Fold this sequence. Notes:
Helices cover 54% and strands 8% of the residues. The chain is mainly α. Strands 1-2 form a two-stranded antiparallel ribbon.
Amino acid sequence: xxxxxxxxxxxxVPGGCPADxxxxxxxxxxxxxxxxxxxxAGRMHPELSLVSYTLLGHLEERDGLRAxxxxxxxxxxxxxVSRQVSALERAGLIERRxxxxxxxxxxxxxxxxxxxxxxxxxxxxxTAFRERLADWAAEDxxxxxxxxxxxNAWPGAAPAGERDRAAPGPRTVDGTH
Length: 177
């Protein structure tokens, strides 16, 4: 195995064991991943910020939500979500509709333009992931996918049904559904 295929066994953890070194490597690599994701988000889909993309994806998954539901799901302040929602409305990507069960409540839904933008960005993201993972063996992809699902299933994480739209439904090795 190459160094890229195994955790960095040289990570020094005072009084630690190989598992401690692996946790340090995971933490470091996930931080690098997050930084790269934020940095590349604007280049990958300049029409939608990473936050906007995430909110639109969640609205599509849930077939509409209240702004307070979005704030609760992402553990964000209502004012933060309100600013994001206003920007998405101004861009014509979402619209407010009266909740048929409670006319006092407004539910946010994607517009057709919002769905099209989300679909374009999602396809670009999938293409980028496929390119990045093109030389990985099928077994490695399946193992990596399983590890990510297991990591994100931790009880302190968002419920399984509330994950990002980027990977909906059952997956095959080639990324098709």
